[in-house]
Amino acid sequence: xxxxxxxxxxxxxxxxxxxxxxxxIIQKLVDSKRQVDAHAKLVDESIAQARPLTGEELYQxxxxxxxxxxxxxxxxxxxxxxxxxxxxxxxxxxxISDEDLSSLIGSLAVALTLYExxxxxxxxxxxxxxxxxxxxxxxxxxxxEDDTFKDSLKSLFSIKNSLHxxxxxxxxxxxxxxxxxxxxxxxxxxxxxxxxGSYFFNHFKTRDDELRDDLFMILFERFKxxxxxxxxxxxxxxxxxxxxxxxxxxxxxxxxxxxxGLLYRDDTFISKVxxxxxxxxxxxxxxxxxxxDNFIPGFWGHAAIYLGTREDLERLGIWENELVQKYAxxxxxxxxIIEALRDKVQLNSLEHFSDxxxxxxxxxxxxxxxxxxAEHILRALSHLGKKYDFNFDVETGDTxxxxxxxxxxxxxxxxxxxxxxxxxxxxxxxVAEQAxxxxxxxxxxxxxxxxxxxxxxxxxxxxxxxx
Length: 467
Description:
The protein is of the alpha+beta class and about 475 residues long. It is built from 20 helices and eleven strands.
């Protein structure tokens, strides 16, 4: 365990003064520490306030985690060219050219900065179960696999990596410190400050007895990570049992439908909607003829998002985006609605969506800029392919329910949630609440029992439905 003094030393080891003019990779790694502090604070505040992490907070945490992984990969690529020099033991007759030594010093500075910042992240996140589990869950939106955080920490406490660092430090002490010519190099002096100010340089020793103690510390931390991973696994197992039960129940009920919806493939309805909606409008529906509808709290039963046509996406400059192109054929075929159904999050056409009795189109009262629209569309598309969340937990990113899609996409909106069976859920009515007077959205188009409501009465009737 790290003492308060060690933590303090870790925080000051990489001040901006030390790093003035240093390599861009090092600066990225150092900057990530402030982000780590901010995200740990977000989790602590949500727990203290007995609320879930908001969509914006979840997005910030996952985006930060993704950036740290990219920083790590960039660091590995940078140091790999030089760390071949320390794959074998540093014997007494070992020699190294000034050119190789200079390059190795830069790589060592990057490697130690990576070690420092990862160790700092470990200290801040590992003993916060909520944050730890969040970063270990799979999330397609951020290209994160299962146990990503755990695996990155285990690589930190790797015997092999630690030995490589120790050998590089041994070369640094033997060949760089007495080298007058290299000592005069301003950039190498910066790297030298980073190396000698690092936790690893000052804490890990090279004498055999002390090295043995350090290796035992590494093994203990790896053991602790494994123990906590097992605790998280059993928590996951409990949630998985609930998930499977809810899935079976939902799939059985989902098969019962008395009739087709009153608006099913209705030309007047489809024409009206297509002439009205705009990208990132929210669409809600009700299907009282389906058995599942009787188990959904509130009036509205399902929520989806209208993405926009190819022309809309071209105008916004994102049609050539890799994520958009992945679904270009479906979009060209009229699948313009994104929704979370029982099998997965998917794109569907308005005709497919129209098997309903009641419908409302909600639009933001504030006009999004083109950049904001593009960001919202890409954020919504990033959830395609995720499984349905039969646990109905707004804080899980690997699975998602229809209303959670909005929670994760409209991150600027402060949705209400409900604590149920130890997890925070969001109902479709809680999405609909955002179109009440004074809220961020407004009801634009309303159909009840298959009939369009007059524009003058739309808001009043919509409000009454939620009462």
